[in-house]
Amino acid sequence: MTTTRCGLVAIVGAPNAGKSTLVNRITGAKVTIVSPKPQTTRFRIRAVVMHAGAQIILVDTPGIFAPRRRLDRAMVAAAWGGAQDADIALLVVDARAGLTDAVRKIAEGLAKSHHPIWLALNKTDLIPRERLLPLTAELNAILPFAETFMISAEKGEGVDRLQDRMAAAMPPGPYLFPEDELSDLPNRMLAAEIVREQILRQTHQEVPHHASVETEQWTENDDGSVRVDCTIYVSRATQKAIIIGEKGSRIRTIGQSARIELTKLLERPVHLFLNVKERTGWDEERARIRAIGLEDMG
Ligand SMILES: Nc1nc2c(ncn2[C@@H]2O[C@H](COP(=O)(O)OP(=O)(O)OP(=O)(O)O)[C@@H](O)[C@H]2O)c(=O)[nH]1
């Protein structure tokens, strides 16, 4: 009998800690898009990695976790709820910067969590080894970490071991993402991210960061172009109206800008279709995120 394992690892850390570098190192792909505005980082899926038979879903904080529509909500709930003990928050710390106020604040927030918290001291290539132990001790005084890793995300040092340990720690359970969709996943996420970025640019602060974007369909056409269908989920009708704009003017601008950007990034013609939908149930998601102490930090 084959048993699969699947779980979520939240990558947490102060700005510049090396979170994106670590995610890119683990996935071997550039799937992380930096938003042009500060403080727009939300809780979202950064990457899905298969490793040693486990599906590791790397998620970003803070914000709201928005499962793709096609995922069974009950499965996602199980990932957060039932399997909660086995899921991990990984605190990435810039070892050279050390215990800054930002790191302290995040560590204190995480200390309230019932999740296992792991520590990755990053950028170990930049400081002498003997500085690592005192820093580990200082951090462990704030919160006892279940595991500690010394890594250099940039150089790849220690990352294999971290990944092995993550895979082993994932709870038994079905994969949340079908394996045959994984090859498209970075592109799907890229498209969703580009659309979300345009929403933030075009709506400024009018729509709080409550809109989530999911790529529902990714269709390769014979002529080399790709058709991308994205749904923008909002929690209120007023937000929907803002995103659509007067006679659809804003959604058109969002779509046009996102299409231009995507065409550039994918280096092929893109046909982008956007759909705005209201989705209730945010409160439930938020409660789950609050439960692990990841909300409103950073
Ligand atoms: N020398 C060294 N530099 C690193 C390492 N990891 C990341 N960096 C550098 O640190 C800087 C910040 O890395 P990012 O991965 O963008 O950090 P982040 O935590 O994602 O930052 P935010 O997006 O601001 O939250 C970049 O210039 C990286 O090249 C490392 O292990 N060693």
UniProtKB/TrEMBL annotation:
Taxonomy, superkingdom? Bacteria
* Quaternary structure (record): Monomer.
Q: Which UniProt keywords apply?
A: Cell membrane, Cytoplasm, GTP-binding, Membrane, Nucleotide-binding, Ribosome biogenesis, RNA-binding, rRNA-binding
Entry-linked PANTHER family: GTPASE ERA, GTPASE ERA, MITOCHONDRIAL
Q: State whether keyword Membrane applies.
A: yes
Q: Which residues does the annotated region (G2) include?
A: 39-43
Q: Which family does it belong to?
A: Belongs to the TRAFAC class TrmE-Era-EngA-EngB-Septin-like GTPase superfamily. Era GTPase family.
Which BP terms does GO give this entry?
Answer: ribosomal small subunit assembly
The record, for InterPro entries, names: G_ERA_dom (IPR030388), GTP-bd (IPR006073), GTPase_Era-like (IPR005662), KH_dom-like_a/b (IPR015946), KH_dom_type_2 (IPR004044), KH_sf_prok-type (IPR009019), P-loop_NTPase (IPR027417), Small_GTP-bd (IPR005225)
- Chain spans, region G5: 151-153
- Which PROSITE patterns does this one have? G_ERA, KH_TYPE_2
The annotated region (G3) lies at 60-63
Record's GO cellular component terms: cytosol; plasma membrane
Task: Write the protein's name.
Answer: GTPase Era
Q: Which residues form the KH type-2 domain?
A: 203-280
Organism classification, top ranks?
Bacteria, Pseudomonadati, Pseudomonadota, Alphaproteobacteria, Acetobacterales
